[in-house]
TrEMBL record:
Protein name: LisH domain-containing protein ARMC9
The ARM repeat ranges on this chain: 400-430
Coiled coil residues, start to end: 214-248
GO CC terms, sorted: centriole; centrosome; ciliary basal body; ciliary tip
Originating species: Stentor coeruleus
Coiled coil found in the keyword field: yes
Signal peptide: none
Gene3D superfamilies according to UniProt: Leucine-rich Repeat Variant (1.25.10.10)
Subcellular location, principal: cytoplasm
Biased composition annotated in UniProt, kind: Low complexity: 649-658
Compositional bias per record (Basic and acidic residues), positions renumbered to this chain: 625-634
Cross-referenced SUPFAM superfamilies: ARM repeat
Subcellular compartments: Cytoplasm, Cytoskeleton, Cilium basal body
Residue stretches making up the LisH domain: 439-558
Length: 682
């Protein structure tokens, strides 16, 4: 944009160089320079290049595309983000014969000769360039693409066959190609400017100001372009949600109409049909409430009177009002942006909202020994708090925190929501050394072994993932290894049952446990008797790359002699995920805010409750409060949707091994985000 102001200087410098080359006798160099200068003037502008690139993409013409692509400035091509972009472009050309862009029903990948040819070309590219992407997690999962028979049907690759993904790829190309390179001014240009400076007229100052203003505008344009791209992506996401919403609402309307017809004809209506319709409606009711609540909080969140909150949590007689208060506090953490979530959590901790510090530390004891309903709402709040490192540190200030949670866990005999939440809290706390040792003392390893052995077919994915993750964390301690070594045959037999599980998260945690405990001689002997090495080698040939690496670690461990392990006094903490890890967006995940609506006429909920009863400096009428409490006792209705047992999602707190072995940490760390709380029926 600003180049027109520099043309005169550039021409003068070029002529000076030509004069010098002629003077010193570099005739061939001079001739090459003149030829190159003519060719450069004929290269099309970037906007034209961008148009050509898009046309090649839409035609699936990879050869012409990369001919234009390689004409881009070399230093731009060397950037790692551009290398990643080029990788995704090659992914697109590999799947082009079966992509939606062709506008017709294409033949399945396994029967499409054009697809087979393009995917073979992609394999050759991976063989040649794959090593350069070894540290780029963004692209590693796509290395499996050539080996999937029909990737368009696989959940991990289905999205890349859509127009939405293609448009996103074009946006990334537009952002990169559209950027004007910013390079340091060459020395010869600086010398030329210094030489002619005395001859410049007074207006040169204005010219500099104009240049500065142009650069400023260009920077603003770049920022606005990035913001616009982000907004477009967010709009597409909301548009997709709206389409789902309308589709499901129409479906529910049809079902309700059928129910009305059956009622009119005197036929009974199935309770299951009614509950399915209600579940869908209540989900969107929550979505709308969430939207309104978020707006209310953004407008003006009230400052809270924490003294009154703690007093009511301690002294309120109506358990429904306690649940409403616990829920409102949880919504302060979940129905908000990530940054505000952190601020609110730090505010809760500063005001010791759950009384974890002695001598006044009995609040959680009372809540977790109260009614089942109060226990459930308390555990839900704890599950959100422990999703942050500062929350875990805060709760573990209470000496019997782990014992209280373990008691709740052991009391529940079925895999219900209360037990799942308690298990989730314990797993997150198990990132702390003191909590690990306390859990091992309280026989948590025995409980986990029993659940994994006897309930494997009757537990939800959430329970299975968190149970295996907790087992892995506890096995990292010397005390934990000693406990497991006492029943070596039973432990190895149980773990071998899960080493080929279809859930990769579960396999990762089981592999991590095996690697950790196979430092013990008794456990190695048990593994040898049960043929673990043979099983692992057979599984390795059919596994993904990250699972293969884990199995290789375990096989190496089996060959080594018994290791001299550090004691629990010298072992380190588990390395926790960084607090500032990047998120897909700035919102708390939906699965952390569960569908537990309290629908009672005289019970306030959410931000309305906090504003009316707990705003700092606001006086509350005691008479009104007592009247509401009495009226609510006979009319309480809690609607809590239960989630489907088959829901498949992976846990969110990353389970990471101790830091002493970097390669091991990379091999057995959890890649995916874990639901911070169990999922409800959606």
């Amino acid at each position: 944009m600003a180049n027109f102001l520099l043309d005169k200087s550039q021409k003068a410098i070029l002529e000076t160089i030509k004069e010098y080359l002629s003077y010193t006798g570099y005739k061939e160099t001079l001739k090459s320079l003149e030829v190159f200068h003519i060719q450069k003037e004929q290269i099309p502008e970037q906007s034209s290049s961008l148009s050509s690139l898009f046309q090649c993409l839409e035609r699936g013409d990879s050869k012409s595309f990369f001919s234009v692509w390689l004409s881009l400035p070399q230093d731009l091509n060397q950037q790692q983000d551009l290398k990643n972009l080029e990788f995704f472009i090659r992914v697109f050309f590999a799947i082009y014969p079966c992509h939606q862009i062709n506008g017709k029903q294409v033949v399945k990948e396994s029967n499409n000769p054009k697809y087979k040819k393009s995917i073979e070309e992609f394999k050759l590219y991976l063989d040649a360039e794959g090593s350069t992407f070894s540290k780029s997690e963004e692209v590693l999962s796509y290395f499996a693409l050539p080996y999937m028979p029909n990737p368009s049907e696989h959940p991990a690759f289905r999205s890349i066959f859509s127009m939405k993904w293609f448009n996103g790829l074009k946006d990334r190309i537009r952002l990169v190609v559209g950027k004007e390179q910013v390079t340091e001014t060459p020395l010869i240009v600086k010398m030329y400017e210094k030489y002619i400076e005395p001859e410049k007229p007074q207006s040169s100052t204005n010219e500099k100001q104009l240049l500065s203003h142009i650069h400023s505008l260009e920077n603003q344009l770049g920022q606005m372009s990035n913001e616009n791209s982000a907004l477009q992506q967010r709009f597409i996401k909301y548009e997709h949600r709206y389409e789902e919403y309308t589709s499901e609402i129409i479906s529910v309307a049809k079902e309700l109409f059928k129910m009305l017809e059956q009622t009119k004809m005197g036929k009974p209506v199935s309770e299951t049909m009614f509950m399915q319709a209600f579940t869908i409606l209540s989900k969107y009711d929550k979505t709308l409430v969430l939207s309104q609540s978020s707006v209310a909080i953004e407008q003006k969140p009230v400052s809270l009177n924490f003294t009154t909150i703690i007093k009511d949590l301690t002294s309120l007689q109506d358990d429904l009002q306690i649940c409403a208060l616990l829920q409102a506090l949880r919504w302060r953490l979940t129905r908000t942006t990530k940054s505000v979530h952190k601020e609110n959590l730090e505010l809760f901790i500063r005001n010791n909202i759950l009384c974890t510090i002695k001598p006044h530390d009995l609040l959680l004891d009372n809540l977790l020994s109260s009614t089942r309903r109060v226990k459930e709402y308390t555990i839900r709040l704890l599950n959100v708090i422990t999703s942050e490192k500062v929350g875990r540190v805060y709760l573990l200030q209470k000496e019997n925190m782990v014992a209280l949670l373990v008691n709740v866990l052991y009391t529940e005999k079925n895999d219900n929501l209360l037990r799942q939440n308690a298990l989730g809290v314990l797993q997150k706390l198990s990132l702390k050394r003191t909590a690990q040792l306390e859990m091992i003392k309280l026989e948590m390893l025995d409980w986990l072994m029993k659940v994994l052995k006897h309930e494997d077919e009757n537990i939800a994915d959430y329970t299975l993932e968190y149970a295996t993750a907790l087992l892995m964390n506890l096995s990292l301690r010397t005390f934990g290894k000693d406990k497991l070594a006492k029943n070596a045959h039973e432990v190895i037999s149980l773990l071998s049952k899960y080493i080929a599980h279809d859930n990769n998260q579960v396999r990762t945690y089981i592999n991590g446990t095996l690697y950790s405990i196979l430092t013990r001689k008794s456990l190695k002997l048990a593994a040898s008797k049960l043929g673990i090495e043979k099983k692992l080698k057979a599984i390795r040939n059919k596994s993904e790359e990250n699972i293969k690496r884990q199995i290789n670690f375990i096989l190496e461990q089996l060959k080594q002699e018994e290791n001299e392990c550090p004691t629990d006094e010298t072992e380190e903490e588990i390395e926790e995920p960084a607090e500032n890890e990047s998120e897909d967006d700035d919102n708390i995940p939906d699965d952390e805010d569960m569908d537990d609506l309290i629908m009672t006429p005289n019970i306030l909920t959410g931000e309305e409750l906090l504003r009316e009863r707990y705003e700092k400096g606001k006086l509350i009428s005691a008479t009104s409060s007592r009247r509401d409490l009495e009226e609510s006792k006979d009319s309480a209705i809690i609607l809590s949707s239960r989630r489907q047992e088959s829901a498949k999602k992976v846990p969110s707190s990353k389970v990471v091994p101790v830091r002493e072995n970097t390669e091991y940490s990379k091999g057995f760390s959890s890649r995916d985000k874990i639901p911070r709380t169990p999922l409800q029926l959606q």
